[in-house]
Amino acid sequence: MGVLIIVLVNVIGYYVFKRFDLTSEKRYTLSEPTKQLLQNLDDIVYFEIFLDGEFPAGFKRLQRETREMLDQFRAYSDNIQYEFINPSASSDELERNDVYRRLVERGLNPTDLQVKTNDGSSQQIIFPGGVVSHKSKELPLELLKTQMGLPPEEVLNNSIQNLEFNIVNTIRKLTINKRPKLAIIEGHGELEHLEMADITYALNEYYKISRIRLDGKLNSLSDRELSADSTKVKVDNKFDAIIIAKPDSAFSEKDKFIIDQFIMRGGKVLWLIDPVSASMDSIQNADATMGLINDLNLDDQFFNYGVRLNTNLVMDLNALPIPLKTGQVGGAPQIDFFPWYYFPVIYPMSNHPIVKNLNAIKTEFVSSIDTFNTKGIKKSILLTSSQYARTVNTPVFITLEILQDEPDQRMFKEEYIPIAGLLEGKFESLYKNRVPPELRDSKDVDFLEYSEPTKMIIVADGDIIKNQVRYSGEQPTPYPLGYDRYTQQTFGNKEFILNAMNYLIDDSGLISIRSRELKLRLLDRTRLNESKLYWQLLNTALPVIVVLIFGILFTFIRKKRYSR
Questions:
Q1: Do 54 and 63 form a contact (C-beta atoms < 8 A)?
Q2: CA-CA to 521 of 20 to 30 Å: which in 85, 412, 432, 549?
């Protein structure tokens, strides 16, 4: 009977695929969007993972989790294939360096480790990532996501939490056929192409991008098609989403109306707005400048949607250092770095999938936002200051002299000031009850008073999407978004913008994978070191003692039994 049951279970298992995950956090359960994407693959997706060889325990765990994740992917699709490669396998140093060079050219970033040995420590170069190929395309895959201010164990754990999203997101970029359309708005002093070059290139992997001037033209963001009976005009959005990045001049009512109706038809918007106008250029020339209200004529529109951008500046003790000349040494200027409190470094703390486990984000002259109850609108705060912050209202005198003395921490008592928010739901048009009847009823306009379910993200800092530019030589060169050329640190600005746009536009739900959480169960290293000898003796001597006791008892009992 038992044999029959085993045979029956195997027969059923051959025809019916089912996995059981008994872990509390469903560690081995893929999300439905991931399963759907895998099942729709039409060709081989090949992974070269450069995590083979001898590593410290943390990277061994990353290697193991990556292999297990790819095995899960392969359980749902035969088109997933992978191999693990040791880039340091060669004993020849020149050959190893050549391998390293080719991996960097393919887009991978090396990590230089200090590995503790019995003789001290040694350096080890590893590439915690891989290259994924599909048909004639290939993309790099980063498995280790850096996060400032976190211990290595948490960085590794967060990277493992994001494994599914990072892998499936790379597959998505390789296999996407029809890209959604994204428009970058121009005409109001927004950032120029060179200042958005890096993020434009990154977004182009997901979306078809255009730069659009509104100029009061109704058809700038929408298409109009006459119905079959010629009695009505059907109006549809040309784009899935728009980005409005750091405008510096007022929007006309016509342009506001065009954006408003774009939203009413389900269009998504990423607003990156500076409520206060302030620039470091003026400070570099005169050591001081004024922060003044940047009047964009958008306050009523934001208020109608359920948010207010305040005309203040957030100062934060957790700030980006800037270089300042402090003296002269041997005829050369001496440069020191000082935290510039008007440039808060934001550490995302929300569990929202847009910002969860994201690296620190750098900002420049950022303002605060307020949200309030609006019927049908759900609001989520995405980014806040640290717990050591304050706001200063305009007009504000901004001077480098504040760096001459230590800051008075009693002045920085405002906690977690919101600077970015997400709004979701059905919005009411700003122009409801304001449009003349002849325009409201016009078949060419097709005015809508309420929106379809849609989303928008509002950030009170236009520089969050701006990449720095190197002006040397004949051709200006943009730096990667998030990279600071002075501190040579890379912040999480690019990932934030990419996640924001993916959340706004992508209907597959892949971004929701980022909300997954795996519990970090770490040993207490202090107690471990203190009781190291105890546990070594317990695990080596105790089994021997138990065997000896068992042998003595067995011999004693045997002699007693057979001596009679």
A1: no
A2: 85
Identify the CA nearest to 246 among candidates 269, 221, 267, 271: 271
User: What separation in angstroms does the CA of 2 have from each of 7, 9, 14, 15, 422?
Assistant: 9, 11, 19, 21, 58
Q: What is the mean pLDDT of residues 347-376?
A: 91
Q: How far apart are CA 505 and CA 237, in angstroms?
A: 13
Tell me the C-alpha distance between 35 and 77, whole Å: 9
3-class secondary structure, 507: coil
- Kindly report whether the peptide bond that precedes residue 418 is cis, defined as omega within 30 degrees of 0: no
188: left (phi over 0), alpha (psi -120 to 50) or beta: alpha
Ramachandran region of residue 53, left (φ > 0), alpha (ψ -120 to 50) or beta?
left
Question: What number of other Cβ atoms are within 10 A of residue 467's Cβ?
Answer: 22
**pLDDT over 70 at 9, yes or no:** no
Long-range CB pairs of 91-95, under 8 A, 24+ apart, other chains included: none
The strand pairing partners of 334, in sequence order, are 327
Residue 261, C-beta contacts closer than 8 angstroms, at least 6 positions apart: 222, 429, 445, 447, 448
Backbone angles phi, psi at 329, to 5 degrees: -130, 115
Q: Which amino acid is at 366?
A: V
Q: Are 481 and 198 in contact (CB under 8 A)?
A: yes
Compute the distance between CA of residue 239 and CA of residue 504 in angstroms, rounded to an integer.
12
Number of neighbouring beta carbons within 10 Å of residue 401 = 9
CA distance 261 to 223: 12
pLDDT, tens digit, for every residue of 175-234?
A: 888 889 999 999 999 999 999 999 999 999 889 999 999 999 988 999 888 766 666 778
Determine contact, residues 518/25, Cβ cutoff 8 Å: yes
Q: CA-to-CA distance for 123 and 380, rounded, in angstroms?
A: 44
The first and second tokens of residue 58, run together, are 């943390």
Checking DSSP bridges between strand 454-459 and strand 418-425, what pairing results, if any? antiparallel
3-state secondary structure of 348: coil
57-76 helix and 152-161 helix, angle to the nearest 10 degrees: 0
- How far apart CA 289 and CA 296 sit, in angstroms, is 20
User: Which DSSP symbol is given to 466?
Assistant: P
CA–CA separation, 184 and 272 (whole Å): 11
CB contact at 8 A, 283 and 403:
no
Compute the distance between CA of residue 551 and CA of residue 545 in angstroms, rounded to an integer. Answer: 10
| Residue 387's pLDDT band (cuts 50, 70, 90) | very high
Q: Is the pLDDT of residue 347 over 80?
A: yes
Confidence of residue 27 (pLDDT cuts 50, 70, 90): low
